Amino acid sequence: MRLGIMAARERTPMPQVRAIEDAVACYADSRVPVRIYRPTATGPLPTVVFFHGGGFVLGSVELMDDVARKLCRDIDAVIVSVDYRLAPEHPYPAAHDDALTVTLWAIENVAVLGGDAACVAVAGESAGGNLAASTTLALRDRGQALAAQLLIVPGVDMARDVAALKRLQRDFPMLAPQDLEDIVRLYMGDRMGDAEHSPPSPLRADSHAGLPPALIAVAGHDALCAEGRAYAECLAESGVPVRLLQFDDMFHPFFAFFEASSSARRANDEICREFSRLLRGQSSR
């Protein structure tokens, strides 16, 4: 899979950014590899910590290089892409811990990154959306606020009713209900009981009050669509400013398919445009 993606990338023009740097985020006793993308814009910029998708078992900063580049270019923000540890070799809470480590590091080093200290945000797709959501909850509990969160086709309930999804007898491209069962088993490892609680299930947190403004994007042909919508409703009921974008003709995970599909590109462009507005206090909510 990795070789196929890399081979296709060699034939595809990559979104251009000003600079790319591989680094290691160090906070307390933790060290996590990251890749930093800087746009052509100058001055203190929004800084976005980005978590790739892949069901907690696949993906890397290299595989998602094109996605991070496009985010950097289209949002005009410093992007810190996180190479978090993957299951099953590193089950929960490894990925969550890495996500929190890098976000704390980014907050502490925002000036060095070229970012605006008042505008640090998180973003993630699929499993990365889970990590972004759980990170905002962890930071809130520490008394630290982020500027915004972008959750793209997020999986926010590791104790979801997979049997109910199977009974729908729908074709969910790229992510079948059985895949969701496998993801939970591999990610949670011997801590399956924790799946019914936050952090692994942000939807099940005791409180969602005090979280940063959110942009949530869901896809109509995605097994995770309902829980993404449910999370948006949960945030709104808790007084969190939230905007939900639903792309009825899209599948999971369309955001990374912007070069292969014109529809996916239009959806990707809209998400980037709206998140840029949210970061700069111009949300069209």
UniProtKB/TrEMBL annotation:
It holds the Pfam family Abhydrolase_3. It comes from the Bacteria. Gene3D superfamilies: alpha/beta hydrolase. One of its GO terms (molecular function) is hydrolase activity. Residues 48-255 form the Alpha/beta hydrolase fold-3 domain. Keywords: Hydrolase. This is Lipolytic protein. It comes from Burkholderia lata (strain ATCC 17760 / DSM 23089 / LMG 22485 / NCIMB 9086 / R18194 / 383).
